[in-house]
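Quarterly update from the structural biology core.
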Amino acid sequence: MPKNAVVILLYGPYSAAGLPVEHHTFRLQGLQAVLARDGHEVILEKIEDWNVVELMVNEEVVFHCNIKDLEFGGDGKLDPLCEKARIAVLNSY
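Predicted structure, tokenized:
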């Protein structure tokens, strides 16, 4: 994958710490940081599927997971799911 690729990060609503079910981005911070470090442009896009995160490159979903499985906040360096997502984006070409 060339640097500066556009990665669309689709995310659905989830319940966090007793808050109502909404589109929160707290768990996406590490994933965004990991992709930005590789030089990709990340565009956040809300979807209606609960607890879902999908990464789309060139109109193809290359990675998906449960948003609750991502670590809360941080830079994503220690989150194994962020590394799997990073590799999926790099191998998308």
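The mean pLDDT is 91.
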